[in-house]
Amino acid sequence: MEIVFDIIGEILELLSLVDIQTKYLMAFTAIWFYVLIIATVVIKKNKKKIFRILAFIPLINFAVFYLFNFTRGAQLTGFLRYGPHLAVALVYMAASLWISRGKRKVLPHIISAVLTGVILAWSVFFVLAIGSAYHFGNFSHPGYKKSMAGLINELEKNYVLRDYKEIDFDHLREVYIPMAAEAEKNKDEEAFAEAVANLCYEFHDGHLSLRITNEELSWKVAEKMAGNDYGFSMIRTDDGKTVVILADENTDAYAKGIRNGVVVTAWDGVPIDEALAEVRCVQFSIYTIAYPIAENEDVVKPIFLAGKGGDTLKVRFIDESGAEKEVSVNKTGSYLGRFNTAIYPLTEKWSSEFANAFMLDDHCGYICIPRESFDDAKDIPAALADEYPEVKELLVSRIEGLKAQGMDRLILDIRGNDGGIDVVYEEIVSLFANEQQISYGAFYDGKNYKKSEHWSWTIVPDGRYSDIPVVVLVNAGCASSGDMLAYRLSQCPNITMMGITTTWGSAQSLGGECLLSGGSIVVRYPLIATLDVNGQIIVDAGKDRKSSIKLDEKIPLDSKAVKVMYEMGADYDLAYTRLYLNKRMEEQ
Questions:
Q1: DSSP letters of 43-98?
Q2: In the prediction, which pLDDT does 4 show?
Q3: Apex 256 CA angle, 250 and 260, nearest 5
């Protein structure tokens, strides 16, 4: 029973976050049932014609509501959110007409109660679980300018980290509302989408993100924001040099000496460090990620810069002979493909199989956790019960299988782990933890974070593998619940965190969604904070953009790493980590 009460408590807390429009429909749907019961008792037999009037009130109510609240350009979104209440209105109409024509009073109420209960439960379940958009802001009707203003107002009121990150909303209004107005004046939806993407960047929160539902528009925006391809990309190594990668032999840039490994010193007449300082790594598509942590963004800035320029571009570099030279190169098309190829080794997962396990050598085992979900049919029940024995059993069987093959050290690969449900990481971490770890969901009232009475996560230490030396391998694509997995593992005694970069750096719970002008552009944002036992925000950086998940050993991004990653296409991170772990074990 305790679990049931906790679930009910969680639902009630989440319902408090729901937008007023959705709350109104939910309340009307529930209250009207009691109106019918009272009417049945009060209205006399010879006045039953009144029920014919009552029959159409819910339908009229829904029609008026939907007239002002339908989701322009995204009809399915509105239908899924509000449609169940239309179904209930039809049920009420049928029940009222039945009562007005017959002698039965109880049966219509029983049938309507059952149907209403089922449909209303589905509506709540969709809003809170499937859609996960507790608070929905519908700005699809006005033009770009008012839509942008509405979005900023909504974020100022509801974004859970607004004060923690010291967001200057007045500045955002000064910059982005005029940009939206200009896009509206020119009827340029691509420019509006680009303005929204840049607005989202200002928050340095990967969970506050742009989604473009129109595939054609999404592709156009991505190509425009990625920029022009000049036949190569770039990356910054740990020594501060910006070096060329992915040089295409079939371009004039290559013919003029721009080859893999050469050091770029200036970009279009601007010294390279100055040019990089102006780069904003804006997430421009669902297929790219944000870089909330400043040190991660510094690594990828050259990749973004490599697409910035006009039809022709001046590049100054140190050629293979050691001489500095400047050449003019021409664009060859869209940079999007080369951009994605350049980003991939720094953000993606190397295996999609959950708990994929094998031996790397006679002593070193390997397990990959690419996501925080396991079985679609079991994930939600497990999340509600806050236990997932199947996950723990699978991990135990994989680890025991490796131990049987001689494993005495382990690499746990969570690169590209893009999140899921918390109970998965709880079960994984418990196997390596020797102390209890607790975190809380919290709601922000504009002054303080209030811990939830029902949203808490406790990792009960199992600790059976707390004596095995473990390296946890991360990258900038280890995100959301993947961030939480990394954070919790980092607090276990036998864990060493390694990576070329630290993790994504965003782990607060989503729940807010704004549909913008035209219905093709959506912004999602966090509504619920995650706190430690001291009431401090977990994982997400503040204004300083410094990660709270520190690397114990940084994998060097040097010329050797660049060559292996981009010319050989091999897994440099894993190879380096295995050598590091084996060497450490030999020295003990």
A1: S-GGGTTHHHHHTTHHHHHHHHHHHHH--TT-HHHHHHHHHHHHHHHHHHHHHHHH
A2: 61
A3: 70
The alpha carbon of 172 is separated from its chain's Cα centroid by a whole number of angstroms, namely 22
Cα separation, 67 vs 122, whole angstroms: 23
The total number of residues shown for the chain amounts to 588
> Can you give the pLDDT at residue 573?
96
Q: In this model, does residue 104 exceed pLDDT 60?
A: no
CA torsion sign for 340, 346, 351, 353 is negative
Question: What integer pLDDT is reported at residue 109 of this predicted model?
Answer: 63
| Between 483 and 52, residue with greater pLDDT | 483
Backbone angles phi, psi at 346, to 5 degrees: -95, -10
Return d(Cα 468, Cα 320) in angstroms, integer: 46
CA distances 569 to 245, 375, 565, Å, are 12, 31, 5
Going from the C-alpha of 371 to that of each of 121, 355, 422, the distances in angstroms are: 29, 10, 11
Long-range contacts of 318-322 (CB under 8 A, 24+ apart): 318/262, 318/263, 318/265, 319/257, 319/262, 320/257, 320/259, 320/262
* Token pair belonging to 506: 């965003």
Residue pair 82/65 in contact (Cβ under 8 Å)? The answer is yes
Q: How many CA atoms lie within 13 A of 141 on its CB side?
A: 9
Spatial CA neighbour of 477 closest among 370, 569, 568, 560: 370
pLDDT of 389 over the 70 cut? yes
Average pLDDT over residues 374-389: 82
Q: Is the pLDDT of residue 112 over 80?
A: no
Residue among 375, 477, 382, 377 at smallest CA distance from 426: 382
How far apart CA 147 and CA 472 sit, in angstroms, is: 43
Phi/psi of residue 194, each to 5°?
-65, -40
Tell me the whole-structure pTM to 2 decimals. Answer: 0.90
C-alpha torsion 338→340→344→345, nearest 10: 30
pLDDT band with cut points at 50, 70 and 90 for residue 3: low
Compute the distance between CA of residue 34 and CA of residue 39 in angstroms, rounded to an integer: 8
Q: 129: which DSSP letter?
A: I
Tens-digit pLDDT profile for residues 321-342: 888 999 999 999 999 999 999 9
Residue 33 tokens read as 């049932």
DSSP per-residue codes, 304-329? HHTT-S-SEEEEEEE-TTS-EEEEEE
The two beta strands, 509-515 and 449-459, are unpaired
The type of residue at 394 is: L
Distance of CA 283 to the CA centre of its chain: 12
Task: State the pLDDT confidence band at 441, using cuts at 50, 70 and 90.
Answer: confident
CA distances from 249 to 231, 245, 259, 335, 567 (A): 8, 12, 8, 16, 13
Residue 380, SS3 per DSSP: helix
What are the Cα distances from residue 207, in Å, to 200, 280, 484, 580? 9, 17, 14, 33
In the predicted structure, residue 1 carries a pLDDT above the cut 60: no
Two tokens, residue 543: 């204004």
